[in-house]
Amino acid sequence: MDYDRLERVLGSDRLHRDVPLAPYTTFRIGGPADRFLEARSAAELRDAVGVCREAGIPFFVIGRGANVLVRDGGFRGLIIRCAIGGIEFIDDTRVRAGAGVDTFHDLIDATVARGLGGLHHYVGIPSTVGGALWQNLHFLSPPPARDRTCFVAEVLESAELLAPDGSIERVANDWFDFGYDYSRLHDSPHIVLSATFRLEPVASAELHHVIRENLKWRDERHPDLWLYPCAGSIFRKIDGIGAGRLIDECGLKGHVIGSAQIFHRHANIIVNLGGATAADVLALMDLAGDTVAARLGYALEPEITVVGEA
Questions:
Q1: Most exposed residue of 20, 101, 107, 291, measured as fewest CB within 10 angstroms of its CB?
Q2: Domain 226-300, CATH number (from 3.90.78.10, 3.65.10.10, 3.30.300.30, 3.30.70.940)
Q3: Which tens digit of pLDDT belongs to each residue from 220-241?
């Protein structure tokens, strides 16, 4: 592969070789990438993607590395970590943020500080702005009701995308064709550069109440990523049933292969107990899928993206 061309365009000081990917995923799993770039601007990301497309170099874009499992053999090509920053308040209710902005630590803090609600529901969920749009980030409505799911699609006004031809397109919300755990980005080569959200004023006490309750709810059901690295839900939602419930009914909650475990509190999450390999995780996924199909007759569909070589 023509990595020399990448170095000429991006600079050898920006392009890194043989970079282990485990530290760049929430699973803390993954072999090395042939080349690795942290793209800090839209121009840098555009240049990298353009060279890869012209030279036939495989590439993959990550943010926080959630919902991703990198195989143990690593990635033959270029991994681009989107680090496009910037938070700009356009007016009293609208905010524009770069695709690499951390929704939890940065954007939620900034909007809540201004008394704006809409993004605060997603506190505690590891994601960048680009990842939030890709997955249509979601969480249950505020307590005590918790009677509906809140989606980031509800507050997205528009976005700037890198198009396949290298141009920058500004698109409205409906371009994304949002669904549950889905956006058009799953099936399109477009890449998010920035997003504009339209929020609403909310009393500070209410914002902080929702944040506290949502964090408490997550702490009771989801792994602490510092103790149990994971990628969130492993299998897609099955309406009216839930993939986790099916796996639990099969008695697999807590099952361990190697150093990976079907989490003891949430059967649709696989955690890294320390030193787990991608092969361990994939073996647990196969076990869960085969067992649920054989005993209960349901087909589990992976929600996470698996990249790289065994």
A1: 20
A2: 3.90.78.10
A3: 888 888 999 999 999 998 888 8
DSSP letters for 250-299: TT-TT-EETTEEE-SS-TTEEEE-SS--HHHHHHHHHHHHHHHHHHH---
- Starting from the edge strand earliest in sequence, which strands make up the sheet with 156-162, in order? 87-89, 94-98, 191-198, 156-162, 168-172
Query: Which string of DSSP letters, residue by residue, matches 50-96?
Result: HHHHHHT--EEEESS-TTEEE-TT-EEEEEEEE----EEE-SSSEEE
pTM of whole model > 0.90?
yes
Per DSSP, the three-state class of 106 is: helix
